[in-house]
Amino acid sequence: MAVHAALKLLITQENVARLQRREPALTIQMLAELTGLATSTITGLTTGRANRIDFRTIDTLCRFFQVQPGALLVWTPEDEDAANAPDGV
């Protein structure tokens, strides 16, 4: 897929900041509770299994992490995807 969510990276960056503030790590369950998003939605975005994302979800995650949509969604040209895919895929 040419577009994917960088949610795992955003969670990791948030956890680094939380560690420095001596706060508990942000988990997928905690993120779901704090944002009102379904755990399955967040899991799908962190694992790369999500095929689509609606604007409300993008807005909610951008507000939570205080980022622009470009920090949440990353585009990779299709030819790079093919070049980086394991043989036989």
Q: Which terms summarize this structure?
A:
89 residues, mainly alpha, two-stranded antiparallel ribbon, 6 helices, 2 strands, globular
Instruction: Report helical residue fraction.
Output: 55-70%
* Rg calculated over all Cα atoms: 14 Å
Note the gap between the termini.
12 Å
Q: What percentage of the residues does DSSP assign to strands (E)?
A: 5-15%
SSE class: mainly alpha
> How confident overall, as mean pLDDT?
90
Main sheet makeup: 2 strands, antiparallel
Q: In terms of per-residue confidence, which ranges show pLDDT below 50 for 5 or more consecutive residues?
A: none
Number of helices: 6
Task: Give the H and E element order.
Answer: EHHHHHEH
Q: Please tally the β strands and state the result.
A: 2
Q: How do the strands line up in the largest sheet?
A: 1-2
The best one-word shape is globular
Briefly characterize the structure.
The protein is mainly α and 89 residues long. Helix content is 60%, strand content 7%.
Task: Walk me through this protein's architecture.
There is one protein chain. The chain is mostly helical and 89 residues long. It has helices at 7-20, 28-35, 39-47, 55-65, 69-72, 78-84, and strands at 3-5, 73-75. The chain is globular. The chain starts with a strand and ends in a 5-residue tail after the last helix.
List the helices and strands and how they pair.
Elements: E1 3-5, H1 7-20, H2 28-35, H3 39-47, H4 55-65, H5 69-72, E2 73-75, H6 78-84
Antiparallel strand pairs: 1-2
